Amino acid sequence: MPLRNDIEITEEMIEAHGLKPDEYQRILDLIGRQPSFTELGIFSAMWNEHCSYKSSKKWLKTLPTAGPRVIQGPGENAGVVDIGDGDCVVFKMESHNHPSYIEPYQGAATGVGGILRDVFTMGARPVAAMNALRFGDPDHPKTRHLVAGVVAGIGGYGNSFGVPTVGGEVEFHSRYNGNILVNAFAAGIAKTDAIFYSKAEGVGLPVVYLGAKTGRDGVGGATMASAEFDEKIDEKRPTVQVGDPFTEKCLLEACLELMRTGAVIAIQDMGAAGLTCSAVEMGAKGELGIELDLDKVPVREERMSPYEMMLSESQERMLMVLRPEREDEAKAIFEKWGLDFAIVGKTTDDLRFRIRHQGQEVADLPIRELGDEAPEYDRPWTEPEKQAPLSAEQVEPPADYNAALVQMLASPDLGSRRWVWEQYDTYIQGNSLQRPGGDAGVVRIEGSSKALAFTSDVTPRYCQADPFEGGKQAVAECFRNLTAVGAEPLAATDNLNFGNPERPHIMGQLVFAIKGIGEACQALSMPIVSGNVSLYNETNGEPILPTPTIGAVGLLPDASAMTTVGGAREGDRVMLIGDAGTHLGQSSYMRICLGREEGPPPPVDLQVEKARGDHVRSAIRSCRVTACHDLSDGGLAIALAEMAIAAGTGMDISLDDATPHAALFGEDQARYLCTVPAELAADFAANTASAGIVCHDLGAVGGDRLKIGGIVDVTVEELRSAHESWFPAYMEGGANPAIAAE
To answer: What is the per-residue pLDDT for 243?
Structure first.
């Protein structure tokens, strides 16, 4: 039967689909003829950056992905890690950057919906969500609108679906003015003997469409996410999907109920590139062909073309290969939950991807080559330039240390994110053991004494100055965050956000960040089990800061031994694990108080990180530590202030250092603050020293003031007021308190 093709393929059309001339020639060589319009759309979807990883695949292969607990690494909807007792944790992080800039509410909401589907597609019930958000300068005219829309979208979807948002990040920098980042994380728990995969098996079996109906929303979304923005950005609004969390909740329950029946052979979320990507991946992984009849696809709009149906990214949809003898049982489950259930095709043995519409064939392509023959580039890259060393003597100390500390706490960079996380339901399901604002979110594993800890982190300024050290630091910071609550780091997921990889210096940032991440993951036993790459994050040639976000999961064998940032008690001793700060390059102090972003980032010694982290975790689990906090942005002074605010009590700290501004604000790595009962302090210090680890007794917990070495003396209430002030005032449209203070 001749292939229907009513539309001439032009050079302009090829370019509009994000395909380079040599890529289009590759298509012609592969299929031996001109593609139909629908086929062009399919190739565009499968071969774009968002789906094929064509610029990053070479380097992603270098990451450590295996470990004794890893059940499933990259290549499936999500990674799977064994947590003992027949249970596993399923998790992933993914970007929804471009859609969230164009339409912040729906862009962020559908980002949450998509990552939740990645998790429950594997057979896991979602138990936790996080998000890592980067916005432009607070004074930029679009920033407040984007913050409001993104936060509302995340809360609107996650709260309605019923998953607690337990942590995340919010940062501001002018380099995100034209391209914000919304990275969504989700984790779920499943039984290790009941994990579901996307590999189709068996010939002549029904391919079933599940969930919501298909519409025109999101057509071309994956291709849009693989291109830069320009002045025509508003024209891309129709490529943003529209989400319905209540339908997704029904889809979750229906899928998990069906999975328990044994009817499911393979299942795949319809995410980026919708029906196209899900069908191709299922068939290709199983060495099978797929035949689809689009007349049977449930639609909610009239006269949808095959091109639109294949590229729609309408939300809350799944594709499944089903055991035919269980069809009636499966259909009854989905109808009970008010969802569509339609047999739209079958598996075949010819390795072809065939699509029929109104009795005619509109696509006939080699299914394996759609993925395997996608371009894979070894793009030119240049090694990032090293920043000149910057000594503490080259950095001006504050004239007033009290004022500097208050200014930093009241800044957009370091102010409390309470305004954000109070819009999220952090306690739904009843298993959250910590509220956001600490080092990591912690969720109890039902039916056991165990808990899981979750964190995400990266410091983009570090990555801009030195992508290799910045990549290492992102992993090390997650390692410390998990350790600080008493959790053993298990594994990580990454979300690599960069500019245009066709520019050698941007590609160099990506290459060296991956090298740093890989080295740190290897040294800290945190394999990468899932992830996402988001490139072309720039507008009119202005790229974002390189932002390789790391999400990580840890395990607490006994949740009762968990520590918090606010557990310090009157009379406790404050112990610093590690030396006083010396490194001010790229520090928050320089950025906030001096308006400078200079110097190299702090170096990361991974062996020291591992040794100190393991020792701190052991001390926490032996119940010798009442509170713990790692040192990161803002150094020792900010960590002390955050612990004092969280505990509601003061501290009297000694400081013996010739360069107090470096000691207080230096961001040297591999450091923790622990508070220890006074009667255990001597033993704690002796045990730490005997392990070859540096430990300093800084002073005592008590009173209502934070006093540091005679140069800081501020009430805890003043610190709290400064810390809590910026976000609410900003979102209400008031003056920026940090700017006003200057």
So the answer is: 86
